[in-house]
Design a protein that fits this description.
Length: 154
């Protein structure tokens, strides 16, 4: 990786400075400082990725609950603005689009079951109204949930 290569280069420079008979102590300390900064930046980046991984996992397991950036803000102790920005960087889409997509995918699975009604599927997947569910379902799949159910249950 890029960080590993940079660490290797810095370590090589430090070793070469120390093995020279006339080394400048300030040069070695500067190289060590650069190395420590590089290692710190690398570990904080991994920590930030882990936080985002935890947030995405939380959304995926709790999609049926009322979720918002505000609720994530309180749960993960980050500002909703930071979560919003980092969520898009991490997933490639906005929080709302991601949440809606997960809800729709799961609602579709529930609708495919013969004895499940559309309203129940919508509510079980976190949609707060049948009309909102039907609107986003039609926008995403080009048909209403009822049309989809008819096609799947033929």
């Amino acid at each position: 990786s890029k960080h590993r290569d940079e660490v290797r280069v810095l370590m090589t420079e430090i070793i070469s400075k120390n093995t020279q008979s006339q080394y400048d102590r300030a040069d070695v300390l500067l190289l060590i400082s650069r190395l420590l900064l590089l290692l710190f930046d690398s570990s904080t980046a991994k920590l930030k990725d882990k936080v985002m991984e935890n947030i995405v996992e939380y959304v995926e397991f709790n999609y049926s609950e009322p979720l918002s950036l505000e609720s994530l803000e309180h749960k993960f102790f980050l500002s909703k603005f930071t979560i919003s920005r980092k969520f898009k960087e991490y997933t490639g889409t906005t929080f709302i689009k991601y949440l809606t997509s997960i809800r729709l995918i799961n609602a579709k699975k529930i609708i495919e079951q013969d004895n499940t009604n559309i309203t129940s599927a919508a509510m079980r997947c976190g949609f707060d109204s049948l009309s909102a569910f039907s609107r986003v379902f039609k926008k995403e799949y080009g048909m209403t949930p009822m049309e989809y159910k008819r096609i799947k249950n033929k």
